[in-house]
Design brief:
Blueprint (H helix, E strand, L loop, with lengths): L9 H52 L8 E3 L10 E3 L3 H4 L7 H4 L14 H4 L18 E4 L12 E4 L4 E4 L21 H6 L24 E5 L25 E2 L14 H5 L9 E6 L4 E5 L30 E5 L8 E5 L7 H5 L12
Parallel strand pairs: 5-7
Antiparallel strand pairs: 1-2, 3-4, 5-6, 6-8, 8-9, 10-11
Length: about 375
């Protein structure tokens, strides 16, 4: 007589399915953690390449690229209303990222935000994207009226973004020096320049020899994530060709992942953040890349946005934490604000790492 294998009973099948489901549940965190480690490693590699390119730029030119320079828009009168911000540091280092073809396609006779450069603005550079940020590859869709100089009366153009930004240090300052305008520079230009404490800033010419705190203890580039900023604000931030605060320039005035403190989107945009849970990746001036936890020591900070503002115009320069005294040294807070610590206050470790010549000795942190 032929014998057939005994079929599984319903109870046995249910038991087998339950065991498989439990095994899958137990394995999922390991799989997700492995994927995130891989994405974080890719993010760190991107930052390493960007830092290496910035250092090569310094060797080739004698200084690190500025965040940007202000310039007069051609065809308009020489007044402050005719100023336009130029290209950011990520544009400057393109040749050292093996992107010479893209760099040489830019018409530098025109502002980076002019109509002749819109194709460059929409180009997505893989090294500028953190794979953990699910939103960063989306475009800003801008009306052509945002372009400087002659432009079509209607239409739209696309702006690609960047997960990475140069570190300006703890302060958010602004100034210009343009030979075609008045005396050639803001009346408080030199005072503003002295208040620039980080590696990159507006109109800056920082040399490696000026990093006296030690290159392994000085932040150069960090990451910021689009995921934690309200969607309606996405159009105006993280533009890869722009060196403005909130685009490819960030400040350490506010904590890493400041979105967890329920702060305004404008503050989150100009601060470091990441999609890597509780840390963000940073490149240091020596080219090394290390994650920094959001719990790193910081200067006195109160997570109440209403207490972050001093009376006056709503410029980013006045969005200061309680440790900081914003001091307006001229007629316009947008251009003429400097910062200092209030009496009895001091930088936290995070801010100290972002200064290039603060005199701090920072060992293992």
């Amino acid at each position: 007589m032929k014998h057939y294998p005994k079929a599984m009973t319903l109870i046995e099948m249910i038991f087998l399915v339950a065991i498989s489901a439990i095994a899958l549940i137990l394995m999922m965190p390991l799989v997700l953690n492995s994927r995130e480690k891989s994405r974080s490693a890719s993010c760190q590699l991107n930052l390493q390449q960007i830092a290496s390119a910035a250092n090569q730029y310094e060797v080739a030119t004698g200084y690190f690229p500025a965040s940007f320079f202000w310039s007069v828009i051609p065809g308009q009168n020489a007044s402050e209303a005719s100023l336009a911000s130029g290209h950011g540091p990520l544009v400057a280092i393109l040749p050292f990222l093996e992107k010479s073809f893209l760099y040489h396609s830019i018409n530098f006779d025109h502002n980076i935000h002019s109509v002749v450069n819109t194709s460059v603005c929409s180009f997505q550079v893989n090294q500028f994207y953190c794979p953990s940020d699910s939103q960063i590859r989306t475009y800003s869709q801008l009306t052509d009226t945002t372009l400087v100089g002659p432009h079509p009366k209607s239409g739209k153009h696309l702006m690609a973004k960047s997960s990475y930004a140069a570190v300006a240090g703890p302060w958010v300052v602004n100034t210009w020096k343009i030979s075609e305008m008045g005396q050639g520079e803001r009346s408080n230009y030199q005072e503003i320049i002295r208040n620039q404490l980080g590696m990159f800033n507006i109109s800056s010419f920082i040399k490696l020899e000026q990093v006296t705190d030690g290159t392994s203890s000085t932040l150069m580039f960090g990451e910021h994530s689009l995921e934690f900023i309200p969607f309606e604000k996405h159009n105006d931030i993280f533009w890869w060709v722009s060196g403005n605060h909130g685009d490819t320039l960030l400040s350490t005035m506010f904590p890493i992942n400041s979105w967890k403190h329920d702060l305004l989107p404008e503050i989150i945009a100009l601060s470091a953040s990441s999609s890597h849970a509780i840390s963000a990746n940073f490149a240091f001036a020596d080219g090394s890349v290390r994650p920094i936890r959001e719990t790193i020591g910081t200067m006195n900070f109160k997570p109440n946005p209403k207490k972050l503002f001093d009376p006056g115009p709503a410029h980013a320069q006045l969005w200061a934490v309680p440790s900081v005294d914003p001091y307006v040294v001229g007629p316009d807070p947008f251009w003429d604000t400097i910062f200092k610590l209030r009496p009895g206050e001091r930088f936290g470790l995070y801010q100290a790492l972002s200064t290039r010549a603060g005199g701090e000795w920072i060992g293992s942190y």
